[in-house]
């Protein structure tokens, strides 16, 4: 994957194509099942959901691996995201319940969005349109 293909490249302005692609290869192995989700949906929605979810997982991984490389988002260095305080405003987040293999996605906002997508995939509920 290159910067041009990475939907959240603007949040990682200093990363090169090679760094992005190397991280994408890692998350593609870690979360290979994502590329099989939404199989019951028609094109182009199926591909769009898969690509969005993989982009969110890539951003999750990059933010956890190097929080200082990110702009416009807060990273916790892999710690679960439970609360944030910005300019006197405090926010608290409830961990999304998840099975062990994907629970780690709770560590930042990108991962939480990917987790929401994975957990709502029709295959998880045998819901077919």
Helical fraction: 40-55%
* Assembly context of the chains: single chain
Work out the strand percent. Answer: 5-15%
What is the ordering of alpha helices and beta strands?
Answer: HHEEHHH
Structural class: mainly alpha
List low-confidence stretches.
none
- Tally of separate domains: 1
Average pLDDT figure: 86
Q: Major β-sheet, in short?
A: 2 strands, antiparallel
Largest sheet, spatial ordering of strands: 1-2
- Radius of gyration, in angstroms, nearest whole number: 15 Å
Q: How far apart are the termini?
A: 31 Å
What does this structure look like?
With 129 residues, this protein is mainly alpha-helical. The protein has one domain (9-125). 42% of the residues lie in helices and 6% in strands. The longest helix is centred in the middle third of the chain and has 21 residues, at 45-65. The mean pLDDT is 86.
Can I get a quick summary?
This protein is mainly alpha-helical. The chain contains 5 helices and 2 strands.
């Amino acid at each position: 994957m290159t910067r041009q293909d990475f939907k959240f490249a603007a949040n990682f302005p200093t990363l090169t194509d090679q760094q992005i692609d190397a991280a994408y290869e890692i998350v593609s192995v870690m979360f290979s099942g994502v590329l099989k989700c939404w199989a019951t949906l028609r094109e182009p929605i199926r591909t769009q959901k898969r690509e969005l979810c993989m982009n969110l997982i890539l951003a999750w991984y990059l933010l956890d691996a190097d929080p200082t490389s990110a702009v416009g988002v807060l990273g916790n260095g892999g710690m679960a995201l439970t609360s944030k305080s910005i300019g006197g405003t405090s926010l608290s987040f409830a961990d999304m319940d998840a099975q062990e293999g994907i629970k780690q996605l709770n560590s930042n906002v990108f991962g939480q969005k990917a987790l929401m997508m994975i957990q709502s995939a029709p295959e998880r509920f045998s819901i077919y349109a």
